[in-house]
Amino acid sequence: MLVSPAHCSRCRTERETMDDVTLRSDTVLSDVHLHAPSKRHLMVRLNAVGQPVFLSHFKLLLDKNNLNPEEERDCQNGSMGQQDKCAGRLNAEGSADDRDIPDRPEKEGGALKEITALLDEDGDLEVVRNPSLNKAESDYCSRDKVFPIIVTKGGEVLEEEEQGDACADIIKIEHTMATPLEDVGKQVWRGAFLLADYILSRPDFFKDRTVLELGGGTGIVSIIMAKVAKTIYCTDVGEDLLDMCEQNVVLNTCHIGPAGSTVKVRVLDWLEDEFCTDPDNPYHWSEQEIAELHSLTTVILAADVFYDDYLTTAFFKTLYRITHHLKNPCAVYLSIEKRLNFTLRHMDVACEAYSHFREALNDLVNVKGGRVSYTVEPVQLSFPQHLVYERVEQLELWKITADVALEESVPPGD
Fold first, then answer.
1. Count of CB atoms within 10 A of residue 50's CB?
2. For each successive 10 residues of the chain (414 residues), what is the average pLDDT?
3. In this structure, what DSSP letter does residue 274 have?
4. Which of 48, 149, 242, 361 is the most core-located residue (most Cβ within 10 A)?
5. Which CATH code is given to the segment(s) 5-62+150-404?
6. What are the C-alpha distances in Å from 187 to residues 31, 135, 216, 407?
7. So what's the pLDDT on residue 150?
8. Domain range annotation of the chain
């Protein structure tokens, strides 16, 4: 993902150990991981390319009775302070994180006591980044470093981690952190949470559907979609990434099995014109799967995959090609986060990746002469928030409707 310069300005220290992970200037880190408490990051193994793989638990806010109307409204509006409170409340109710995040001091007296405690022995004030936060909260909001807990350097997760399998409102995701740009699909991004929120807010619409996700990454959107849809094809490229995605599907069988759903992890390269049917590829397509995809798919998803102009163009070409093979009209949902970057070309802050995305949307609508016509509309973000994250104003959700033209009927005997 293209991120703000603040995310890319950190340097790696000479001391690189598993319990002291810092960021190099050529790596990016998702805000989903950046804002989460360090104790939530459990390193479980090294992947095939030597990257640390972490396990995170994400709580689904499915029981809205747990929040009063004011708290629910604040969570939906993406208030970070309220999100912290929600997270602390969820932990107190028995989530996998095993610690509470205290509420911020609300009384002036409490804040004064905090400040008094910061005076040194000479009576001088020791200035800190946020004097109103206690130590636990400061750890939660710190952006300086990530200190993951090493569970094991290889093999399976510790037994106590597996005891939460029966929890119906916990999504368990293996992912990496602080990756190079080409590996950002191995992280979890806010755009995935936004799309997941929309899915959970409209279960009747997605019920029993056949769904294709493009650029599925860790698979979290497809896994949540499996709570309602019938068949989900979760696609991406790179065997190491697809292995991680497959592992996440296995970790979340408690969500997929009871719904009677199937999540199929498959390779789909936007730079190729055909589906991979090579049996030597463990994530290849069968001819039957390709036929069923074209016959039954009515929903296509993509979460926060528009960070490179070349790949964005390839994405829309792939979308155009697939929708022209579908037998039914299709609803396409795309989430994106506008990310500001300083560019030498503009000598100003700009959202170049977002601008290219909008141009590609317009080009798709203006395509003429095909058997599919496209309409595009933004989706209002008024639906409830079911995951604890900061729903920032830069997040957007777009809907493309791909209408398949009816074949002209030919009179018998002509």
1. 6
2. 39 36 66 67 85 91 52 43 42 34 39 46 50 42 42 41 57 92 94 98 96 98 96 97 97 86 97 96 98 98 96 97 96 94 59 94 91 96 94 96 68 41
3. S
4. 242
5. 3.40.50.150
6. 10, 27, 11, 43
7. 43
8. 5-62+150-404
Cβ neighbours, 10 Å, residue 141: 16
Q: Which residues contact 151 (CB under 8 A, 6 or more apart)?
A: 42, 43, 44, 55, 157, 158, 161
Which helix (H) or strand (E) segment holds residue 75: the answer is helix 69-76
Q: What is the pTM of this model?
A: 0.73
Q: What is the model's pLDDT at position 406? A: 61
What per-residue string of b and e applies to 308-321 under the rule 16 or more CB within 10 Å gives b?
A: beeebeebbebbbe
Q: Closest Cα partner for 164 from 100, 251, 247? A: 251
Strand order in the sheet with 42-46: 149-150, 42-46, 52-59, 170-175
Alpha helices in 271-413 (DSSP H): 287-296, 309-323, 352-365
